[in-house]
Amino acid sequence: MRDTAGAENAFRAAIRVQPDFAPAHANLGGLLAGRNDLPQARRHFEAAVAAGAAQFYRLALQLKPDMEEAKISLAMAERARR
User: Fold this and answer.
1) Helices and strands in the chain, H and E counts
2) Which residues of the chain have pLDDT under 50?
3) How many CB atoms lie within 10 A of CB 70?
């Protein structure tokens, strides 16, 4: 027996604390897709992808702060999360 309500609450709590936490968005998307709530699932899958991309570009900018492509891509990824 799976506690999907408890899992959903945990994923949503994690997202409230850290809105760009890709694993919580991905897991919540999977749970919602399993319920056939496809519009909400898609929103969370897209947020997971954008958050993962944003984390990648932040790391790239730590290594090379003047990388214009990473700055632009980070801005686009952050905008996609909204």
Assistant:
1) 4, 0
2) none
3) 19
In the chain, what are the domains?
4-81 (1.25.40)
pLDDT of residue 81: 64
Q: How many residues does the chain have?
A: 82
pLDDT at 10: 97
**Residue 1 has what pLDDT?**
54
Burial class (CB in 10 A: 0-12, 13-18, 19+), 68: exposed
Which 3 state secondary structure label does DSSP give 16? helix
Please give the Cα distance from 57 to 69 (Å, whole number). Answer: 9
